[in-house]
Every structure is written in C-alpha cells, then in structure tokens.
Amino acid sequence: xxxxxxxxxxxxxxxxxxxxxxxxQARVGNYPGVTVEHKxxxxxxGSTSHKSIELVDLPxxxxxxxxxxxxxxxxxxxxxxxxGLARPDAVIVILDATNLERNLYLLSQVLELGLPTLVALNMxxxxxxxxxxxxxxxxxxxxxxxxxxxxxxxxxxxxxxxxALGELLESAESxxxxxxxxxxxxxxxxxxxxxxxxxxxxxxxxxxSQGCRLPRFQIERLxxxxxxxxxxxxxxxxxxxEVTERISQAREQLASEGVAIPLFxxxxxxxxxxxxxxxxxxxxxxxxRASLSDQIDRWLTHRWFGLLFFVVLMFxxxxxxxxxxxxxxxxxxxxxQWIGQRIESMMAPGxxxxxxxxxxxxxxxxxxxxLPQIAILFFFIAIxxxxxxxxxAAFMMDKFMSILGMSxxxxxxxxSSFACAIPGIMAxxxxxxxxxxxxxxxxxxxxxxxxxxxVYVLMVSAFVPNRSVMGGWIGAQGAVLFAMMALGALxxxxxxxxxxxxxxxxxxxxxIMELSSYKWPSLRVVLMRVWERVLAFLARAGSLILVTxxxxxAAAYFPGDHGPLDIATAKLExxxxxxxxxxxxxxxxxxxxxxxxxxxxxxxxxGTAGDWIEPIVRPLxxxxxxxxxxxxxFPAREVIxxxxxxIYSLGAGQDxxxxxxxxxxxxxxxxxxRPVYTLATACxxxxxxxxxxxxxxxxxxxxxxxxxxxxxxxxxxxxxxxxYAGAWIVFNxxxxx
Amino acid sequence: MSIPRPxxxxxxxxxxxxxxxxxxxxCGEEKNVHRLEELGIRCGCKIRMLSPGEPCLLAxxxxxxxxxxxxxAGILVHPLTP
Lengths: 737, 82
Prior knowledge:
Chain A is α/β, with parallel strands linked by helices.
C-alpha cells in the first residue's frame, strides 16, 4: 500500500479535500489549526495497481521552516522521521488558486524534498468571481509537475485528482529512479547565492565525515532557520555543540560575503515563483466590491460591537443549553430509574442486585443524564468553528490577551478547552512562541470543560431556585451556570499574568493570523463532530466511570453483614405486592431499612474514609461523603456524580431512592439534622470543580506536549491549591451572607 | 510594477479604514521579516486596511490577515488612496 501526504497552507480546503478523497473521516474546520497532528485515511484507486492508499492529512503550514509544533509534524512526516509512518511515496500539495503566488512558496520547498509531487489547484470555482484566470496546463509545464483543478467543497475535480495520483504512483514505481523521473523543471534553491551553496556543500561533506548523512534540504534549513526551529532536532546530540559552532561560523562568513540570512531565501523563492507564473496567471482589473464576509466583518470585528456580540452569543449558548437539554435529560433519568426498578422486581435483594442497581445503574446512569447537554454544547462549538467565527473571536480577544503578554492565537486553544482541555492543549501546537504556548497549556485546564457540566448541572438544578430574573428574560439557573463556566476563564487572567511575569519572563509576542471567509456550517461536519464527542463520552462512561462506580460501590458496601437489610427489603417488597397491605407495617419496615442502610454505610470502608477525610473538607462545608466523592473524582471529575449516585443510592431512604440524585442530596443531613447541602455548599463544590485539575488524561497530555513531568505536577499543585482556597472563600462568604 | 521609493512610505498602521497601500519595505528582526514574507507580506504586494488598531485587520492580496507586530517588525507602505 502506498502512502501519500497531503500538505498545504492553512485555509486552502485541505481537510475538505482529504474528506472528499477518503469518504469523510477527518474533522474539517474553518479556522487555522484544526489539524494539529497528522490524520490518516484510506482511499481506493480503481484502475491502478495501487488500489488502496494511505492518505496522510498534514497540519496547514506556510513553509517547511517549522517554527511551531504543528508545522514540525509536517516536516517530520515528509522527511520520514515520524515514528510509525513510512516516508510518503508521493505528496499532494494543495494550492489556493485565488492566492497562487503565496501558496507556491510552500510548493517550492516541497519540490526540493525529491518526492513525486502532484498539485491540486483548489478553489478553482472562485477564480472567475475574483477576476483571475490561470492556465493549468502552462502552470504544470512551468512547474514540471502534474496540476489538477479542484473545488473540494463542491467535490469537483476529485476523480481527476485520484486518477492523476494513480498515474503518478504508477510511473514512480515503474521508474528505476523515481527521484530523477519526477524532478521538477527547476528548483528555487538553484538560485540561492553561490557562497551559500558552497557552504551547504562543505557542511554536507563534514556531516558525511561524521557518519551522519543529511539531505541537502535539511542542511539548508540548518543554515537558514534559528536554533529553535525543527531542523536542529534531527542532529545527533553528540554533534549538537559542534554543529552549532560550525553553523555560526558559516553564517558569519556568509554575512561577510553579503548573504543576508534568512531573508535571501524568501527573495530567491519569490523570484522563482515570479518566473514560474509568468504568462500563466492573469488578473483582470475589477471594481472592488465588499463581499458578504466583508460586510459581516464590519460588525463582528468592530471594536465594541464585536466584543458585545461575543459575550451575548456565549451567554445565549449557555442559556439555550439549559432550555434544550431539560426534556432529553428527564427522559434519560426516567429510563435509568425504570431499568433499576425492573432489575429490583426480577432479583431478590443481595450483593449482585445492589451492585447492578446501586453501583452500575446509579453510578453510570447519573453521568449519562448529562449527555444531552454535552452534545448541545459541542453542537454550538462546532457551528462557531465551521462558520469561520472562531478566528474573528481570536482577533477580537487579541487586544485583551496582549495585556497579559499573550496573543489571540492562545484564544482558540482556550476556547476549545471549554469543550475538552485535551484537544485545547493539543491545539497550542499552532502557537509559535514557546512562552505563549506554555502559559496557554498551563491555563487551558482552568477553562470549564464539558466534564464539569454534570457537576454544575446537578448542583444548580438541586439548589438554585428555578426562577426568572430581569423580567423573565434570564433564568437564575442559566445565569449561575454561565457564571460557573466563566469562573475558570476569569481566574486564568491573573494566573496567566503571574506565569508570564515570574515563570516565563520575556518579550511580548506578536500576533499574525489569517482569517478565512465565512461560510454556512456544514451540517454533516457539525453532526460528525458532535457524534465523535458523544462516542468519546459514552466510551468514558463505559470504562473509567463504570470501573470507578463498581469500586466505590464495593467500598460503600463492604464490610458488613447485609443479611438483616436484605431480609427487611424482601419483606417490604412482598408487602408492597399485596393489594390491601397494611400501611403502618410498610412504614415500620421502611424506617427499619433506612436505619440499617445508614448503619451499613457508616461501617463501610467508604464511611471510614469519610471520617478520615472530613476534618480536611469540613472548612469547605462538606461532609465525609462529599470528601470521598471528590477524592474519587481526581482521575476524572465527572466521576463525582457517579460516586454520589452510588453513595446516596446505597444510603438513601426508600422514598428518596425513586426521586433521583438531586432529591437525595437535598434530603441529606448532618447528625444534628441540619441539611448537608445548602446553596453555599453547592457553590463551594462547583467552585472547587471549576478550578481543580481533576483529569488524569489532561495531565498526561500536558506531559506529552511539554516533554516533562514538571509541568503536569505544577498544574496539579497550583490548581488544587487554587480550588481549595476558592471553595473555602465562597463557602464562608455565602454562609456569612 | 515599479515599487515607489521608501521615502514616501508610512507604517501600515497609519492607513485609514479602507485605504490601500503598496508594501515598500519590511523592517525589524530578520526572523520576523522572514516570517512575514513566507506569509505573503512582501515588497510589492497590495494591502487594504480593514480595521485599524492593535491588532489591525488587513486584506493582503484578497486574503484577510490580522496583525500585531509591536516593536518586533514593521511594514512600510506607500499609500495608494487618500
């Protein structure tokens, strides 16, 4: 099977073309940085020997001079350095036909890698309206590589591209030397200044003498790029200091000979581009008209209106989530309770029934209830991304982010973190500045991800009055939910400032970002993204949350003799089955069961752990059960709902068991009869969850992205301390108030 | 197209909304200038100011680009429209 890489500038429709070729498995976005690591898909070519092809979708990049982590992925894949992925047999370079010259810059570098190359001239359908005419045959002749005109969003030219790719692969395979066969007409590097080429020759000889053979393109990059760039990572560590010294000497020599590094490169490449497009492209003079995108941008990027629009939009999204989700949530809650009751009616009381009903169904079911909200949240985020609005929001937020020493580029990863911190942290790969990237990674887990939703919604629905304020326009529950979602973002402001000031001091970063045109979001893309996240949520509920639920159930069930409780439960159920049962007898049995349940849970391992932990969490207004549930939720924060579901299902009175978790929480009391949960306790729990780093997957992602355990440990410590302090302040303020 | 001499040039931030300019010089740290050129902002290209300020929103050869360069780099343009 052949491997083919797909590369191009950001916003050239690369992911759309990938989907068109592979049948639609990759996520497509309308803002820079959707593809931050390579994605692979399978495509079939009917009429050639290469029937099945592995297509690798690379992150969008403007050049192979990799400065950011996502650009480095493209270079690693193309040069065959990516572990587990063979060097591609061919490359498809996708060019935006409406901005040909700039896009040819990347092609000029790709051609020097010596791989069989095919050009997809995308957005072909827009040329006429832009007043541009391109002769693809002449362009192909001038570049020395095949050129196919495509319009990926309309699936135009996709079959031609597949056919051209088949031919390219066949001819490359049949040729003795694919590199010679597919060498383009000319390379931009041949016009580099003579002293530079001589330096590259000398360095190549030196690398050979050290037993480290590097391709010429890579040696050129070493000379041109600064020491932070990806090209330096390929040098064996034993040679690093000597290479750095030799490069430094070579640069001094070149400077003395009038070669301005790195600027000569761009000038030489654009000169090459100018020659290649001469007589190929024609621009007709046309009257400038404001496009629909321009007209929308006049408002949405307006200094004040744009900001107001953003805040109102976010508020409306969070309000509408609470409105739309209530009905399906009730449905899921009813279904889980119905299943629990069916099992109870079919099985005699005992450990297995308790495990199924109180452990698995109460635990996993209480988390599944929040699936509608998470799906609706992702639906809105996908619409904002696919429409092109997100990059405008980044532009709007840059002014504010620059006050913190960061840039608008940090905004997109942070916004993604509202859905889930893991893709948010991965999206920081688009940030070139290391300092900005580190600060963004460290504050991203403060954004209120979807895993916090179950905690917020449970507490808000149980303890915040369901009434409207401001003339009925704003629901109190929705407003508190919005405040909780905003809390992490607000706290991240001073945290970012402190990190920039004391942990990563340096010069303020610059901000350069291309904005794509607005488009109607594709329903298919939006639904696919929602589906991906729903599946991920269900997989988590079926694995980590299920296991935790069973463990918590075991800790709350054992040790203890449940015989008397099972006998009393069986008697009550038998009594309830009699049509003319004695209500007093039933009442007596219920009282006995409640007493036994309370005794069993206080004697259990969980009860003992609760006694231990209570002094630590008491200042936050929590009892031992909440303390244990919070402790159990450190691997994944949504586990708290499952844990509370299990604890209260095991310890709940018979009448509460059928009313759902919220009712069970409301009726929980301290030994002196005071309610455990008040509005202050609920807010204290929510603030703790808003600020705490309770997600092992996020910490592992930080480790992977920073290549050090230091930063996940730092995140965990500072966020846990912040969460405890925040919860304490809120509980005491609200209790006082 | 002949590029006007830099003596007529003004920083791109000076362009009024909807005003156009021709890039005549890029200045600042070489690595930042190199990056701007890779992004297609180079001498001879036409720029239209869409939204001034920091960051500003520009249309460069028909593509929208937002920029905040601070002291690290500068784009000098020759205004084409009053």
